[in-house]
Amino acid sequence: MSKRAWSWVAFVVVHVLLIAGEFVFGKAASWDVDQMYRWWADTVIVGAGVPGVTQEWVYPAFALVPMLLARVIPFVDYTLSWGLLVTAVDALAFAMLLGRGRSRGRLAAAWFWLAGAAALGGVGMFRLDALTVPAGIAGGLWLVGRPWLGAGLLAAAAWLKVWPAAMLVAAFVAVRRRWAVVGGAVGVSLVIMLAVIALGGGAYLFSFVGDQTARGLQIEAPVSTVYLWLAVLGDPDAWVYYDQDMITFQVTGPGVDTVIAAMTPLMAVAMAVIAGVGAVAAWRAAGFVRLFPMLSLALVLAFVVLNKVGSPQYMTWLIPPVVVGLVVDRRRWRTPAIVVAVLLATTQVIFPWFYDALLALSPAMVVVLTLRNAALAALLLWAVVRLVGVARAGARRSARRLRPSLVDPSTP
Question: Packing angle between helix 104-120 and helix 334-348, nearest 10 degrees?
Answer without folding.
Answer: 20
